[in-house]
Design brief:
- This protein is an alpha/beta fold.
- It has two domains: 193 residues, Rossmann fold; 112 residues, N-(1-d-carboxylethyl)-l-norvaline Dehydrogenase, domain 2 (Orthogonal Bundle), CATH 1.10.1040.10.
- Helix content is 43%, strand content 16%.
- The strands form two sheets. A five-stranded parallel β-sheet has the order 4-2-1-5-6, with helices on one face. Strands 3, 7, 8 and 9 form a four-stranded mixed β-sheet that branches.
- Strand 5, helix 3 and strand 6 form a beta-alpha-beta unit.
- Helix 7 packs across helix 13.
- The protein is globular and about 50 Å long.
- The N and C termini lie far apart (44 Å).
- Belongs to the ketopantoate reductase family.
- Catalyzes the NADPH-dependent reduction of ketopantoate into pantoic acid.
- GO terms for molecular function: 2-dehydropantoate 2-reductase activity.
- It is an enzyme of class 1 (oxidoreductase).
């Protein structure tokens, strides 16, 4: 089984390095400083654990031209959602009729409604249908990752904690996910399969759709946001609205927001991925994480005034900083 990983940043780099180390043929698609660093070192460098030492470079094929790779058995899409639309034509070059597409990304994905029984396409996630045409939903195996990873420098991945990966076929069932799950297990991940992967996607989104943008607005780590009663209460209000949206599409959430806050608070002084992007001057993933929820709320008739306010404030903040396009 051949794997191609698009995007060798924190998550994509971790997956590619682990797979290559386990003996799986892996090709990675990267560009710029990341590609140059991998080529110079002869592979990806991986530091595991809170205080793990960097590994020797883990060899793998790295290129910025996927056209020469040909169709792959599995394509892991690990680019930021802000870059996906422009990357889609290149990704399509390595997709054949039997290729399994595994998006390892944040937020609400373009394939989310495939198999859910709702004829909905969100402007926030697939504005003109390009993703649905280039990356067919019936070839997707959805993925939800619960792990921490970062890139302290190009071509170096730090993985302090977390191994959990959930895979599933958007149309229902897990049989199509099993070969991918087996490969990831051999690579060291703790993989489970889900009969309804959208539940796992929605639950993760419900948990991080507030802290990510609030961290960008405030510059605060998660512990400080949740220790502030007003900020915590605002996050709770947003989560209650999102839970009602989920219930309307058959994805109810039984967890109380305060219980979810306790889990997040237990992680300590975490700088969210969106805060890290903002501080590095990279575009922020507001559309997939927040705008998609407000748009879906309108589609199913659920008012979302708190989420709307969160989106408005975070979007304006990002626009002032040049991290989100003006209208």
């Amino acid at each position: 089984m051949t794997f191609c990983v698009f995007g060798l940043g924190a998550v994509g780099g971790l997956i590619a390095a682990r797979l290559a180390r386990s003996g799986v043929p892996v090709a990675g698609v990267a560009r710029g400083a990341t590609l140059a660093a991998i080529r110079e070192r002869g592979g990806l460098v991986l530091a595991e654990g809170p205080d793990g030492e960097p590994s020797a470079p883990i060899p793998l094929t790295a290129t910025d031209d996927p056209a020469g790779l040909g169709p792959q058995d599995v394509v892991v899409v690990a680019v930021k959602t802000t870059a996906l639309l422009s990357a889609a034509p290149a990704i399509a070059r390595v997709i054949g009729p039997d290729t399994v597409i595994v998006p390892a990304m944040n937020g609400l994905p373009w394939w989310f409604f495939h198999g859910l029984g709702h004829d909905i396409r969100l402007e926030a996630t697939d504005p003109d249908g390009t993703l649905s045409r280039s990356l067919p939903a019936d070839q997707v195996v959805g993925a939800v990752l619960h792990l921490a990873a970062s890139c302290p420098e190009p071509g170096v991945v730090r993985h302090p904690a977390g191994e959990r990966v959930i895979l599933g076929d958007p149309a229902g069932g897990s049989a199509r996910a099993e070969p991918v799950a087996a490969a990831l297990r051999r690579a060291g991940f703790e993989v489970e399969t889900a009969d309804r992967i959208q539940r796992a996607v929605w639950y993760k989104l419900w948990g991080n759709m507030t802290l990510n943008p609030l961290s960008v607005i405030t510059g605060a780590t998660m512990d400080r946001i949740l220790d502030d009663p007003l900020a915590r209460g605002f996050a709770t209000a947003c989560m209650r609205e999102a839970a009602e949206v989920g219930a309307r599409i058959g994805l109810p959430i039984d967890t109380d927001p305060e219980d979810r806050h306790a889990v997040s608070r237990g992680l300590g002084a975490v700088r969210t991925s969106m805060l890290q992007d903002a501080e590095a001057g990279r575009p922020v993933e507001l559309d997939a994480l927040v705008a998609a929820v407000t748009e879906l709320g309108r589609a199913v008739g659920v008012p979302t005034p708190s989420v709307d306010a969160l989106l408005g404030l975070a979007r304006l903040n990002a626009r002032v900083r040049g991290l989100y396009p003006d209208e």
